From TrEMBL:
Region (Disordered) location: 131-151
Molecular function as annotated in GO: symporter activity
Cellular localisation: Cell membrane
Name of this protein: Sodium-coupled monocarboxylate transporter 1
Mode of membrane association: Multi-pass membrane protein
GO biological process, one term: sodium ion transport
Organism field: Zophobas morio
Alphabetical list of InterPro entries matching this protein: Na/Glc_symporter_sf, Sodium:Solute_Symporter_SSF
Bias kind Basic and acidic residues: ranges: 141-151
GO cellular component, one term: plasma membrane
């Protein structure tokens, strides 16, 4: 787990917010593509006019023949022109940020075992008060993380 303060409310509302954000990005983008306001250049698959001696000249002349995209009076925002590969990244970032905000605002506190938290995120955990595992005798369990009075 990367975020020790995350809770079920934050996860639920973060998931809803990420879904709404991703949907509000995907649906208008596909609408603009359907209306022809966003056009992606296609790759030429034909080899007509290509010679084996001067391939680069023919390729550049073929690119020069491609007509330019006309500029309409209504242009979609640049956020709708991003590649569909970035949609999951956008949704994941929105989910994590909003979920953490809701988790911190809900103020549900509970102790988390340090072994369950990634070493990268252990700086988020509060300092342990009490004795270390080394101070416990051999017969006792190291359950002082959940109940600091034992050990």
């Amino acid at each position: 787990m990367l975020f020790p303060k995350a809770n079920s409310k934050g996860a639920f509302y973060g998931m809803l917010f990420g879904f709404v954000c991703t949907t509000s990005l995907v649906v208008p983008s596909k609408y603009f593509q359907l209306k022809g306001l966003i056009k992606y250049p296609t790759t030429l698959l034909s080899t007509t006019g290509c010679s084996s001696f001067n391939v680069t000249t023919d390729a550049f002349s073929t690119l020069a023949n491609i007509s330019a995209i006309t500029v309409d009076s209504v242009q979609p925002s640049s956020i709708f022109k991003i590649s569909f590969y970035y949609y999951p990244l956008f949704g994941a970032i929105a989910t994590v940020i909003f979920g953490l905000v809701v988790s911190y605002m809900s103020k549900e506190t509970f102790l988390v075992d340090r072994d369950l938290i990634s070493p990268v995120a252990q700086f988020c955990l509060p300092e342990e008060s009490g004795r270390n595992e080394e101070e416990c005798s051999d017969g006792e369990e190291a359950s002082h993380i959940l109940d600091e009075t034992k050990c």
